[in-house]
Automatic annotation (TrEMBL):
Organism: Paraliobacillus quinghaiensis
Residue span, Flavodoxin domain: 5-141
Domain of life the protein comes from: Bacteria
Source lineage: Bacteria, Bacillati, Bacillota, Bacilli, Bacillales
Biological processes, Gene Ontology terms: heme biosynthetic process
Protein name: Flavodoxin
Molecular function via GO: FMN binding; menaquinone-dependent protoporphyrinogen oxidase activity
Length: 165
């Protein structure tokens, strides 16, 4: 079974989460960072997992474009969706998923999760640090990716990915 994890990251949290997730999944796993690699042909994959990070309430534009261009194919595959985001409010998390992913894909996905976040103040620019301090309330570098959430997602995805669409 071939699985493709397609992600975009700005400061590395989503990449870190993607690599941790790949270790928890069986079969052949291909990792694609849309920021640094060309858009893949996803027809040959059985399973596709897509992850992005939230900045200013939304995921990266290039990832959104990939989703729109490939939506018909994605709706024929087993799909999992994840976000790396720092806002802890469950209402905000639901809004982030709705803003990040097309409604049809959200409904179709067999696994969805928020894996947590990292705020590495050494990687953030001055404006990003100010926003994190003021809006999120975090005053120093914080690393809160949840290995438990990643493992739960992997378990759910493995269980559901054995069934055909």
């Amino acid at each position: 079974m071939q699985t493709c994890i397609i992600y975009m990251t700005k400061h590395g949290a989503t990449k870190q989460a993607s690599f941790h997730l790949a270790k928890k999944l069986p079969g052949d796993i291909q990792m694609i960072d849309l920021k640094n690699e060309p858009c893949p042909n996803i027809e040959g994959f059985d399973n596709i997992i897509i992850g992005g990070s939230i900045y200013m309430g939304n995921i990266q534009k290039q990832l959104k474009q990939f989703l729109q261009e490939n939506l018909p194919i994605l709706l024929r595959k087993k799909v999992g969706l994840f976000l790396c985001a720092g806002h802890p409010d469950p209402k905000t998390i639901n809004e982030q998923f709705q803003n990040a992913f097309p409604a049809a894909l959200l409904h179709h996905a067999c696994a969805k999760a928020r894996f947590g976040y990292t705020y590495d103040f050494y990687k953030l620019n001055a404006i990003e640090r100010m926003i994190v301090k003021k809006i999120v309330g975090i005053k120093q570098s914080t690393f809160q990716l949840s290995t438990e959430k990643i493992e739960e997602f992997a378990t759910q995805f493995k269980r559901k990915s054995t069934h055909k669409v």
